[in-house]
Write a structure and sequence with these properties.
The chain is an alpha/beta fold. It is built from five helices and nine strands. The strands form two sheets. Strands 5-6-4-3-7-8-9 form a seven-stranded mixed sheet, with helices on both faces. β8, α5 and β9 form a beta-alpha-beta unit. It is globular. It starts with 11 loop residues before the first strand and ends with a strand.
Length: about 180
């Protein structure tokens, strides 16, 4: 990559995956490049300089990679929101709609304390269903979401508008047209 590369330059597009007509935005190429990965983490952190963040919540699964790195940089705890049945111990759950059906995500019932300031992270914002479900779980535990941060936004799918309509601050590093 040239020195002046943008985060978007590290993301490859795979045509017709997982279904025909889908342009899959693959961030594994970004994660695999040390310069690209560092750039993405630094840019995701930048808007929150000087902001109190108690925990970073990552949405399954690529949000774990980003969330772990961001939590490490901030010296705060990391909390995963996982698909149903993947967390041991007592959890609370939230169902949500996907483009192709429904799903359920869970969080440990003691992962967030009331009043904690939470940053939610994931790689991609599409319809916003997963993020909305995660936000509902965090709020049920009393967490206060300061922002939701993503590498990619697919504006045509309306996820950002959905989250902003919920009163969420949303930060993205780049956008791609299409599905």
């Amino acid at each position: 990559m040239p020195k002046s590369a943008d985060v978007k330059d590290y993301i490859r597009t795979i045509v017709d995956f997982p279904h025909e007509g889908i342009m899959f935005r693959d961030v594994t190429t970004l994660f695999a490049d040390p310069r690209g990965f560092r750039m993405a983490i630094d840019q995701m952190l930048h808007p929150y300089a000087g902001t109190r963040i108690d925990k970073v919540v990552g949405l399954e699964a690529r949000g774990f990679i980003l969330g772990g790195a961001i939590a490490h940089q901030l010296s705060v705890g990391f909390v995963p929101i996982r698909k149903k049945g993947k967390l041991p111990g007592t959890t609370i759950s939230q169902d949500y709609k996907l483009e192709y059906g429904e799903a359920i995500v869970e969080i440990h019932d003691d992962a967030i304390q009331p009043g904690e300031q939470i940053l939610v992270v994931d790689d991609l914002l599409a319809t916003g269903g997963t993020a909305e479900a995660g936000i509902k779980l965090i709020e049920r535990l009393g967490g206060e979401i300061i922002s939701c941060s993503f590498i990619i936004d697919l504006p045509e799918l309306g996820g950002r508008k959905k989250l902003e309509a919920m009163g969420m601050d949303v930060s993205v590093l780049c956008e791609f047209d299409g599905l």
